[in-house]
Amino acid sequence: MNIDPSTTKYLIRAKIIADGVVEKPDVVGAIFGQTEGLLGDELDLRDLQKSGRMGRIEVEIDSKKGKSEGEIIMPSSLDQVETAILASALETIDRVGPCKAKIEVIGLEDVRLTKKAKIIERAKALLQTLMEGSKVSGASLTETVRQSVQVQEIISYGKEKCPAGPNIETSDAIIIVEGRSDVLNLLKYGIKNAIAVEGTNVPQSIRELSKERIVTAFVDGDRGGELILRELLQTCEVDFIARAPRGREVEELTQKQVMKALRNKVPAEQFIEMFGFNKEGGGQVQDTMSLFEDNEDEENDLKDDKRPIAPKPKIEKQDRPQAPQPQVEKPLAPQADKNQEQKTETKEKHLNPEQQKYKRILNGLAGSFKAHLINSKGMTVKEIAVKDLIETLRSPPHDITA
User: Fold this and answer.
1) What DSSP string describes 195-211?
2) Cα Rg for the chain, rounded, in angstroms?
3) 20 to 30 A Cα–Cα from 151, which one of 181, 232, 273, 281?
4) Helical H runs in 20-110?
5) Calpha distance 379→382 (Å, rounded)
6) Residue 388: which of 361, 364, 370, 368 has the closest Cα?
7) What values do phi and psi take at 379, rounded to 5?
8) How many CB atoms lie within 10 A of CB 176?
9) Measured between alpha carbons, how far is 6 from 55 in angstroms, rounded to an integer?
10) pTM above 0.70, yes or no
11) Where are the alpha helices (DSSP H) in 36-75?
12) What single-letter DSSP state applies at residue 39?
């Protein structure tokens, strides 16, 4: 239906039912003919249409099985009272053409309220779009500029054109990551000496570079990271190993997480010794995340503990299991000398039966990250994790001697 908007303040909606086949001209003629003179000269439909106070009458009607049904819509620019009078006058029509008919007013609709509701809904949608656009443009302005600079800073290194930071050629130490997005994320936090292998097949240029620099392998905390780490250990001279948290990727880490992971890196030789990695290949990929998680837990315990710890040195004097040490960044040679001195001292000492018993217990605990509390009878009272040892020794169980 085409409704004239210039003459519309209200809409009269009515339903018509006729006992015969009628068409639109018949309905319109019946409306004009049977209301003429009924409402007086002021509300005569013909005069109202000529003056523009009443719009064109729209009729939609269908005929089925000898009967007709349809809808009548009359636009009005009169006031509410006059519009209501016209609407009630429609219900006085009882014939359309030669057929009996019945017209029932469904309702009066205020077109302005409908328009207001549409205006409000549209305004809300436009305002939401505007606010989202403003928020994104304002928040991402700095990030967009930073990312564009970071992309410009990335260089291609070697014949394989590996993505790398701008300092990869001049830095004494490098960080090997998995992909270009990892290099971008590290660039965002000011780390410009990273280079990506982009797959498990390590490029030859990275292999050669690892022979000249101090290398830290920084891989994801998932199975893919284990595979790439195994490949790096077999093909490159890796000095330190850092892992993202379990189930996380380097490219999605925050600055705090990146710095924490790099701070908790472990020497490659210690890593290989702990998990039995074979540089020649073979064997199955292991879950090595426990080493890095234990490092984090131990570091947090040390940070939270502000009181002096007396019992711990007594346990360390005995040949305790080698737990991973966080933040180990010293060269490997001094550490090897220290271990050699400890072995020499152990060989020179003659152990009594009680010490030999403790030694057997310690050998059984090697690499398990667990500790035993022993009473005066030499019996194991409790088995605890190494990371919980500090808290347990603050209030030890009764009759604990070792």
Assistant:
1) EE--SSS--HHHHHHHT
2) 43
3) 232
4) 24-35, 45-50, 80-90
5) 9
6) 370
7) -100, 145
8) 26
9) 9
10) no
11) 45-50
12) S
User: What is the C-alpha to C-alpha distance for residues 272 and 278, in angstroms, rounded to an integer?
Assistant: 7
Tell me the two tokens of residue 186. Answer: 């590290």
Q: What share of the chain is helix, strand, coil (3-state, %, to 5)?
A: 45, 20, 35
Helix boundaries (H) for 221-351: 223-235, 255-263, 268-275, 289-304, 311-317, 332-348
CB 20 within 8 A of CB 98: yes
pLDDT digits (tens, 9 = 90+) for 83-141: 999 999 999 998 988 889 999 999 999 888 888 999 999 999 999 888 877 665 555 66
Fold match, 5-111 / 155-300: no
Asked if CATH classification 3.40.1360.10 holds for the domain at 155-300, the reply, yes or no, is yes
Residue found by looking up tokens 């990030």 in the block? 143
Query: How far from the centroid of its chain's Cα atoms is residue 221's Cα?
Result: 17
For 5-111, CATH number?
A: 3.30.70.3250
Question: Is the dihedral angle over the CA atoms 294, 298, 303, 304 positive or is it negative?
Answer: positive
pLDDT per position as a tens digit, 42-85? 888 888 888 888 888 999 999 888 899 999 999 998 889 999 99
Rounded to whole angstroms, how far apart are CA atoms 221 and 252? 11
Q: Which two tokens stand for residue 143?
A: 């990030």
Can you tell me the distance from the alpha carbon of 200 to that of 44, in angstroms, rounded to the nearest whole number?
90
Amino acid, single-letter form, for residue 306: K
* Structural domain boundaries in the chain: 5-111, 155-300, 305-394
